[in-house]
Structure formats: C-alpha cells, structure tokens
C-alpha cells in the first residue's frame, strides 16, 4: 500500500478534507504548528526524504529541505512555520541532531544527549521536553530551554514509552501537557496510560 499525503482538518466537531501535500508526508513525518501555520518535514514516501512543506490552512508549499538528510521518526514542536524545532529521528540509522527553522532556512542546533526516534516532543521551541522513544524503549527524557538540552524527568512509574502519541499541550508549555499510549519492548505491551508533565 502506498503512503498517503492527504490532509484532514478538525473544527472541534467534524473532520474535513484539505489539500494533499506535494512531497512531504507519508509515514513517520514530523508535523507541528497550527492549523493555519504548520510545517511537515521528512517522512517515508517510498524512501526516506528530507523535504519540508508549509501549510497555510488551505495549501501546501515547498520549504527548504531539512539539514538532517532523510529524517523520519523524529519529533517536532512549533508555534508556527517560522518558529519550529525538530530533533531525533532515523534515516534509517539513529539520529540525535536538532534543528531550528525560522520560516526561510534551517539551522543546526545542539544535539540530544541520547539519540532517539519515535519519541514524543511537547512544549514550545524555547521550553520543550523530548521523552520516550527507542533503545528499544525508554522512560527517560530531555528538556530544551531554547539553546541547550538537559536531563529531564523519568516517567512517574518508570513506564517505558516507545512510540507514544503526540502530546496535547494544554497551556502552551511543557509544564501543561499530557501524553499517553506507546509500547514497551514487545508489540503486545501497549499501554493506555496517560501522563501529565508538570
């Protein structure tokens, strides 16, 4: 089955179809921002790609390719297409780099202490937490303050999270977000546990 590049928008009640992206998307892409100012980066569409596309609420348009070539399985957070943070991933080897996008160009930033993929990033581009992910599952995390990564908290009950869901930021910072789901080392170890980071 071919990977898809379709878009769906939610208005609080119903889903509606949006325009398809051009190149970015497929599996394991990194998407963040708002419904009217989002950036989709990388993914797997027949092969790993590093293309980026911005979304204005109606149309997708090509943006510069990410510096971390062929990056997928990473995680991102963004206020808009001009304030975007991407970290981690695989291409297909494990990646630990982080990158910032200002709406026109990418800049390399400080690498994660531990390379990870299919983890979960929550918060803002100056106050974020990247948790869970590989090795093959992990309960640790790293905090981002806008310029450096530092050791973050472990899960409350040391529950390892591989491929958790994307977080919901309830108040715009990492201190007001919830996440859930994910698995441990075995595919049948999925969890429905919800966690709040304070």
Task: Give a written overview of the molecule.
By secondary structure, this protein is mainly β. Strands 3, 4, 5, 6 and 7 form a 5-stranded mixed sheet that branches. Strands 8-9-10-11 form a 4-stranded antiparallel sheet, with no helix packed on it. The chain has a 4-stranded antiparallel sheet with strand order 12-13-14-15, with no helix packed on it. It contains no helices and 18 strands. The protein has a single domain (17-197), classed as Neuraminidase (6 Propeller), CATH 2.120.10.80. The mean pLDDT is 77.
Order of helices and strands: EEEEEEEEEEEEEEEEEE
Fraction of residues in helix: under 10%
Silhouette: globular
How does CATH name the architecture?
6 Propeller
**Multimeric state:** single chain
Approximate strand percentage = 35-45%
Supply the CATH superfamily name: Kelch-type beta propeller
**What is the CATH C level class, in words?**
Mainly Beta
How widely separated are the two ends? 41 Å
What is the SS-derived class?
Answer: mainly beta
Under CATH, the topology can be stated as Neuraminidase
Total of DSSP H or I helical runs spanning 4+ residues: 0
The overall pLDDT, averaged over residues, is 77
How many β-strands, per DSSP? 18
Tally of domains: 1
Features:
single chain; 18 strands; 5-stranded mixed β-sheet; 198 residues; mainly beta; Neuraminidase; 4-stranded antiparallel β-sheet; 0% helix
Question: Topology, please?
Answer:
Blueprint: E1 7-10, E2 15-18, E3 25-26, E4 30-34, E5 37-44, E6 48-55, E7 60-63, E8 75-80, E9 83-90, E10 94-101, E11 106-108, E12 120-124, E13 127-131, E14 141-144, E15 149-151, E16 168-169, E17 177-180, E18 194-197
Parallel strand pairs: 3-5
Antiparallel strand pairs: 1-2, 4-5, 5-6, 6-7, 8-9, 9-10, 10-11, 12-13, 13-14, 14-15, 16-17, 17-18
């Amino acid at each position: 089955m071919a990977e898809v590049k379709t878009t769906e928008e939610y208005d609080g009640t119903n889903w509606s179809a949006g325009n398809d992206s051009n190149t970015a998307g497929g599996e394991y892409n990194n998407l963040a921002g708002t419904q009217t100012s989002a950036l989709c980066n990388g993914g797997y569409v027949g092969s790993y790609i590093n293309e980026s596309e911005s979304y204005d609420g109606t149309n997708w348009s090509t943006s510069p390719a990410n510096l971390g070539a062929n990056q997928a399985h990473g995680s991102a957070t963004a206020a808009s297409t001009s304030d975007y943070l991407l970290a981690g991933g695989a291409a297909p080897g494990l990646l630990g780099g982080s990158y910032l996008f200002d709406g026109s160009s990418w800049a390399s930033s400080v690498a994660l202490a531990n390379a990870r993929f299919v983890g979960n990033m929550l918060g803002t581009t100056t106050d974020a937490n990247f948790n869970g992910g590989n090795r093959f599952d992990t309960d640790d995390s790293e905090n981002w303050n806008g310029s450096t990564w530092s050791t973050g908290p472990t899960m409350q009950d040391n529950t390892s999270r591989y491929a958790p869901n994307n977080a919901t930021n309830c108040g715009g910072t990492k201190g007001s977000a919830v996440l859930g789901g994910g698995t441990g080392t075995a595919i049948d170890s999925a969890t429905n546990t919800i966690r709040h980071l304070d």
